[in-house]
């Protein structure tokens, strides 16, 4: 019997060159999230990924989600084709205004690659793709089939991952062993992160001429009182509760608008709240408690509007066999395999909500994401390829059970 093919001939330098080149090409294709506009913003990069994958021995296709915006699906058959390991990373980026480096030129300097999306999240996507290509070229067959999904809209309303969960790409396979979601985590394994509840608080008044303000309710002044109340009476008590991996919940007044002219008492003033929730907190209950407290104090001077966005927290069991295998793979290649938590969110919570054991893992640091000079460490990017090959090949033994999407009884509030 001939020995199983290996990747011994793949030097670290050749991996570095390949993954850096691929990431540079991904960064060069603009895919700024259109924030609800009917623009196929991510489809050009999805098309590039599909074409690149086919040229490199992988099956790939596009799936439209909304307004011509397409997820891209890439597959690698495994020995057990009835079960899959899911890799997921997003194609969209945040805006490029005020960037201090060229957003789409992928400049390399001092061991880092600069450009919009370099770490969030085209870097993880590039590492996933190179790892899958290496396995396809080597002749090694992973124990389970691999499905990679590059999805749209992670930075806004999560419609890409929602579309993925409804697509035949997963339902046909039925059993999902586990998922690795690519985000910049410094190559640490994230098993818990916060969710969020975002809503507006609106103060209204009759309006009037600024020369005769007497007796008029000024909505800006009402909102100022609300902001002071939240900062002094609500936020301090959030520290009373904490999760061992993600810490306490947070509440931030993130936006404010109001007034129509310098010589007018405004009719309305509006603030936006960002409340980060803990695993186990129901975002809708959080909103209801906030509304009750604010309206009890301020009466009908203000209205706490229904949330315009809620997102689930992630709380994956570190003892799950797939999760433990990812941690073991990190340790196997000399990285810290201990599970950690974060304060930001990801698509992983949506996967976990349907019963898929999901972790977040990728090269790059969240401190570099969304910045005017966004960048990624190329050494980390290179190391991520080896980590993902190790995870996908199961070189650290695991005996994992698949998760049946159709039969899962896990609900969003259970995860």
List the helices and strands and how they pair.
Elements: H1 12-27, H2 43-55, E1 59-66, E2 69-76, E3 80-90, E4 107-109, E5 112-114, H3 122-138, E6 144-151, H4 159-166, H5 168-171, E7 175-182, E8 189-193, E9 195-204, E10 208-209, H6 219-238, E11 250-258, E12 264-265, E13 268-277, H7 283-298, E14 302-304, E15 309-311, E16 314-315, H8 321-332, E17 339-342, H9 348-352, E18 358-360, E19 375-377, H10 378-393, E20 403-404
Parallel strand pairs: 3-6, 3-7, 7-18, 8-17
Antiparallel strand pairs: 1-2, 2-6, 4-5, 5-19, 7-20, 8-16, 9-13, 9-14, 9-15, 10-12, 11-13
Helix pairs in contact: 1-3, 1-10, 3-10, 8-10
Domain Peptidase M20 dimerisation: 191-298
GO molecular function: hydrolase activity; metal ion binding
Keywords: Hydrolase, Metal-binding, Zinc
Describe the structure.
Helix 1 (12-27) crosses helix 3 and helix 1 (12-27) packs across helix 10 (378-393). Helix content is 31%, strand content 26%. It is an alpha+beta fold. It has ten helices and 20 strands. Residues 1-9 and 397-415 have low confidence and may be disordered. Strand 4 and strand 5 form a beta hairpin. The relative contact order is 0.18. Keywords: Hydrolase, Metal-binding, Zinc. InterPro entries: ArgE/DapE_CS, Bact_exopeptidase_dim_dom, Peptidase_M20, Peptidase_M20_dimer, Peptidase_M20A. It holds the Pfam family Peptidase_M20. Its cofactor is Zn(2+).
């Amino acid at each position: 019997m001939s020995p199983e093919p290996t990747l011994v001939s793949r030097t670290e330098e050749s991996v570095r060159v390949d993954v850096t080149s691929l990431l540079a090409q991904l960064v060069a294709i603009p895919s700024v999230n259109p924030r609800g506009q009917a623009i196929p913003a991510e489809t050009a990069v999805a098309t590039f990924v599909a074409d690149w994958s086919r040229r490199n021995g992988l099956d790939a296709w596009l799936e439209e989600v909304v307004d011509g915006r397409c997820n891209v699906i890439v597959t690698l058959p495994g020995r057990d084709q009835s079960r899959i390991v899911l890799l997921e990373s997003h194609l969209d980026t945040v805006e490029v205004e005020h960037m201090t480096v060229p957003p789409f030129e992928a400049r390399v300097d001092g061991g880092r690659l600069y450009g919009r999306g370099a770490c969030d999240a085209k870097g993880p996507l590039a590492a996933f793709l190179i790892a899958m290509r290496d396995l396809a070229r080597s002749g090694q067959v992973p124990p389970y089939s691999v499905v990679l999904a590059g999805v749209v809209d992670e930075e806004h309303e999560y419609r890409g991952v929602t579309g993925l969960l409804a697509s035949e790409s997963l339902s046909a396979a039925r059993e999902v062993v586990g998922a690795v979601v690519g985000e910049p985590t410094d190559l640490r394994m994230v098993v818990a992160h916060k969710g969020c509840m975002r809503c507006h608080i609106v103060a209204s008044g009759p309006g009037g001429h600024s020369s005769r303000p007497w007796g008029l309710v000024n909505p800006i002044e009402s909102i100022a009182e609300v902001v002071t109340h939240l900062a002094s009476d609500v936020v301090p008590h959030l520290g009373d509760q904490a999760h061992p991996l993600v810490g306490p919940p947070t509440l931030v007044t993130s936006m404010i608008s109001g007034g129509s002219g310098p010589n007018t008492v405004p009719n309305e003033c509006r603030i936006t709240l960002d409340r980060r929730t803990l695993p186990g907190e129901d975002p809708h209950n959080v909103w209801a408690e906030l509304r009750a407290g604010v309206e009890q104090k301020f009466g009908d001077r203000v209205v706490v509007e229904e949330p315009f966005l809620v997102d689930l927290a992630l709380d994956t069991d570190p003892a799950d066999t797939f999760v433990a295998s990812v941690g073991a793979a990190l340790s196997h290649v000399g990285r810290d395999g201990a599970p950690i938590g974060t304060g930001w969110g990801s698509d992983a919570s949506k996967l976990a909500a349907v019963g898929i054991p999901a972790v977040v893992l990728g090269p790059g640091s969240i401190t570099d994401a969304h910045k005017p000079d966004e960048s990624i460490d190329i050494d980390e990017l290179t190391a991520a390829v080896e980590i993902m090959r190790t995870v996908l090949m199961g070189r650290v033994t695991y005996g994992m059970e698949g998760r049946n999407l159709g039969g899962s009884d896990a609900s969003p509030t259970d995860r």
